[in-house]
Amino acid sequence: MCLSIPSKIIKIDKEKNTAFVDTMGVTREVGLDLMEEGSLHVGDYVLIHIGFVMNKIDEEDALESLKVYREIIDKMDEEDRFAAVRESDNCPSGA
Amino acid sequence: MGLELKNLYDDFRDANTIKAYAKLIKEDAIKLSKTINIMEVCGGHTHTIMKYGILQLLPSNIKFVHGPGCPVCIMPKERIDHAYVLSGQENVILVTLGDMIKVPGSSGSLQDARSKGADVRFVYSPLDCLKIAKENPTKTVIFFAIGFETTTPMTAALLDTVVKQNIPNILLHVNHVTVPEPMRALISDEACIIDAFLGPSHVSVISGSKIYEEFPRERGKPVVVSGFEPVDVMQSISMIVKQFVENKCKLEVQYKRAVSYEGNMKAQVMIGKYFQKADFRWRGLGDIPMSGLRLKDEYDRYNAEKIYDAILPKQPIDDHKLCICGDILKGKATPPECSIFGTACKPTNPIGSCMVSSEGACAAYYKYGNLI
Ligand code: SF4
């Protein structure tokens, strides 16, 4: 099931066409193959689906969604957070 | 001990907002002269609706029909058999996503194949195939690709890398399907009771809301593209009910924070480069013309279905006689009406498609049935 947690871009690797994103404190490398070149910048919020950036989301909307997650993020330890993030975007259907 | 994901969902539900929407929907629904049957196309929505007990919050004249939007559930047995046969080939590593590994084919699931010694791997991203291929240069990695419009561009991106980097040992077995065709097929059935659609979230992120335009315009069925969270779903239901009250029939997007009219054009171009439309046989729904995607002929050398054609079974395999998944998808029946629901057919031993993945209607009813 997809919770669609917004992720924040923290670094872009132009050479590999990938980005490092922060999803609720978990850092991952994701592919940028589906995004127009130059359309993303450090600090942008994006949605991730099976290892790729799927789109950019409006910062205001992203922060609004993140606020809800923030309230609970502290209650989780590293491992749980990682599992939660993984599971939330590990929706193969993503329908 | 930290919180489980379960708790995360619970915390995520904003009870007051949901209640406010429930009240609004009720007030509007009183003005309706008939029952409205809404189909949520996507399995993610089915899950949200069942998990949060949204059905109980709705007035009796607002009903849901659970749609076919779960790529695992709609996979016909003969395609699973393809994966099973491929995984048994010498020097083959079969790679796939999600619950696919648990779905029974006619000779067993991929999990069974694995326990018999086949090299079957479940990955998080198609990109993981690149690493597996590199680490196993003497083996052929076959990616059993599944999913709707959401997931297709990621398969295309994998192939793009394979082609560009000339990687010799990755093949694809493509089982991608698209959303508008089954929606069209369902409402073309005279017995179909669907009045409106709750449009999928992430399919629409890729394809844009434009793919649903024909439904309000030509078929008289309103569509509201909805986000996944319970509040999103409640708001979308409210938007649909409003349309009926005001005698309107249009396409609306509730999930504006992620969905545009055009969608992700780069992803669409990527899909168009490698795939073309093809017929697909849906488990529970049967043959639907042009509802799937296949690799274009010029990429035959990456197409496991063509390369292994001689050994892949072709015969369609029907569902179990007692399974009424097809009727459930058309809104003619609900899961508990199936004679083997929860007895012979359970998530641990799924007989039909809707019990397989947690996004299937029967599985969702089984898991959250106490809420009904
Ligand atoms: S309970 Fe099982 S057999 Fe019955 S309709 Fe659902 S999936 Fe089919």
Key features of this structure:
heterodimer, A: 95 residues, alpha+beta, SH3 type barrels, 2 helices, 5 strands, globular, disordered C terminus, B: alpha/beta, Rossmann fold, five-stranded parallel beta sheet, four-stranded parallel beta sheet, 16 helices, binds iron/sulfur cluster
Per-chain topology:
The complex is a heterodimer of chains A (95) and B (372).
Chain A: E1 7-13, E2 18-23, E3 26-31, E4 45-49, E5 52-57, H1 59-73, H2 78-89
Antiparallel strand pairs in A: 1-2, 1-4, 2-3, 4-5
Chain B: H1 5-12, H2 15-29, E1 36-42, H3 43-51, H4 54-57, E2 62-69, H5 77-87, E3 92-96, H6 110-115, E4 119-122, H7 128-135, E5 140-147, H8 152-164, E6 170-176, H9 180-188, E7 196-199, H10 202-207, H11 214-219, E8 223-225, H12 230-245, E9 251-253, H13 265-274, E10 275-282, E11 286-295, H14 304-307, H15 325-329, H16 361-368
Parallel strand pairs in B: 1-2, 1-7, 3-4, 3-5, 5-6, 7-8, 8-9
Antiparallel strand pairs in B: 10-11
The complex binds iron/sulfur cluster.
Explain what you see.
The complex is a heterodimer of chains A (95) and B (372). By secondary structure, chain A is α+β, with helices and mostly antiparallel strands. Chain A has a single domain (7-87), classed as Roll (SH3 type barrels). Chain A contains two helices and five strands; from the N terminus they run βββββαα. A five-stranded antiparallel β-sheet of chain A has the order 3-2-1-4-5. The longest helix of chain B has 16 residues, at 230-245. Chain B is of the alpha/beta class and 372 residues long. Chain B has one domain (33-319): HypD, alpha/beta domain 2 (Rossmann fold). In chain B, the strands form three sheets. A five-stranded parallel β-sheet of chain B has the order 2-1-7-8-9. The radius of gyration of chain B is 21 Å and the shape is globular. The chains are: A alpha+beta (95), B alpha/beta (372). Chains A and B meet through strand 5, helix 1 and helix 2 of A and helix 1, helix 3, helix 8, helix 10 and helix 13 of B. Iron/sulfur cluster is lined by residues 320, 322-325, 328, 335, 338, 340-341, 345, 351-352, 354-355, 362 of chain B. Iron/sulfur cluster binds at residues 320, 322-325, 328, 335, 338, 340-341, 345, 351-352, 354-355, 362 of chain B.
